[in-house]
């Protein structure tokens, strides 16, 4: 299908949602506001799963990025965002937030700071809460859309919601994933001239964080990231040039054997097909991020 014949992304998403189990009434089922964060406004194809929820992540009344959330596992399967050029500094002291669209606590479409006391208990059936991470000493709250890939205070603040977070092994994050995210930041800062579209997600394998003898939050087996940069510098050095317009990476979310491997987007798709219940036509970016000439 040529781009000129492709239906609007919101129409495809509505079709997907119409085939899914009924969502909570407060979930933003149109998703139109967040189509801008997807390359060609098209979500990945071939994704399957019961009860998955599309979240258009709003902060202070502004759409910030898109997330496919799994309420049963209480983690995002991926977040889709547009990379913003930045110095890589992380914000300090921002509150962690929850997603009212998944809960009956509030009808607002904006993410909000976690309430204190009993009110948090009303949220825990639909999403992860701060208490889930309190005793998980081997893991930290790993953002899929990372603070350091955003620039404005609002975009940075919006990454601090648990619907954008998965349990990430501390050693893996600190020694492997964080340096990798910074390499990507520098690469896109320097050689992507247009808007880079990024997908960051996970695969799951059954391990969970438990609380009160209950499975609460799924622990990803792999972390992955892929980008599509439609307008890039053709004079980039060779070691960068072959990783444009699109490239990807994955890493094993473990204490040991956790190096990050950069691969083509097609090889990442093959890994996801092996690890997750997706269709054989699963594709991260519309038309494989092929740049028209």
UniProtKB/TrEMBL annotation:
Q: GO molecular function of the protein, one example?
A: hydrolase activity
Instruction: Note the InterPro entries from the entry.
Output: DNA/RNA_non-sp_Endonuclease_sf, Endo_G_ENPP1-like_dom, ENDOD1, ENPP1-3/EXOG-like_nuc-like, His-Me_finger_sf
Q: Which residues form the DNA/RNA non-specific endonuclease/pyrophosphatase/phosphodiesterase domain?
A: 61-278
Q: Which residues cross the membrane?
A: none
What's the short name of a Pfam family annotated to this entry?
A: Endonuclease_NS
Q: Which SUPFAM superfamilies match?
A: His-Me finger endonucleases (SSF54060)
Tell me yes or no: is Lipid biosynthesis among this UniProt entry's keywords: no
Superkingdom as given in the UniProt entry: Eukaryota
List UniProt keywords, sorted A-Z: Signal
Domain named ENPP1-3/EXOG-like endonuclease/phosphodiesterase: residues: 62-270
Its signal peptide is 1-25
Please identify the protein, giving its name as recorded: Endonuclease domain-containing 1 protein-like
What organism is the protein native to? Answer: Megalops atlanticus
Its lineage opens with: Eukaryota, Metazoa, Chordata, Craniata, Vertebrata
């Amino acid at each position: 299908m040529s781009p000129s014949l492709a239906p609007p992304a919101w129409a495809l998403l509505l079709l997907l949602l119409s085939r899914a189990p009924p969502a909570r009434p407060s979930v933003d089922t149109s998703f139109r506001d967040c189509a801008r964060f997807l390359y060609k406004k098209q979500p990945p194809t071939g994704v399957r799963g019961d009860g998955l929820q599309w979240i258009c992540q709003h902060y202070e009344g502004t759409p910030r990025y898109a997330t496919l959330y799994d309420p049963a596992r209480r983690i995002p399967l991926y977040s889709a965002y547009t990379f913003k050029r930045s110095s890589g500094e992380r914000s300090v002291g921002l509150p962690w937030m929850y997603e009212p669209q998944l809960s009956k606590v509030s009808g607002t479409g904006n993410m909000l700071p976690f309430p204190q006391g009993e009110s948090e208990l009303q949220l825990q059936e639909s999403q992860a809460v701060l208490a889930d991470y309190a005793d998980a000493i081997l893991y930290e709250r790993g953002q899929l859309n990372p603070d350091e890939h955003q620039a404005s205070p609002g975009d940075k603040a919006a990454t601090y919601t648990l619907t954008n977070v998965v349990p990430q092994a501390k050693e893996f994050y600190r020694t492997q994933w964080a340096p990798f995210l910074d390499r990507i930041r520098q690469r896109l800062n320097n050689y992507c001239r247009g808007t880079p579209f990024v997908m960051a997600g996970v695969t799951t394998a059954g391990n969970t964080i438990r609380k009160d003898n209950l499975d609460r939050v799924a622990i990803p087996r792999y972390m992955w990231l892929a980008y599509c940069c439609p307008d890039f510098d053709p004079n980039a050095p060779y070691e960068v040039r072959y990783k444009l317009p699109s490239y990807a990476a994955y890493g094993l979310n473990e204490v040991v054997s956790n190096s990050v491997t950069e691969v083509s987007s097609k090889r990442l798709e093959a890994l996801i097909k092996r690890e997750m219940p997706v269709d054989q036509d699963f594709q991260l970016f519309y038309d494989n991020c092929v740049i028209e000439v």
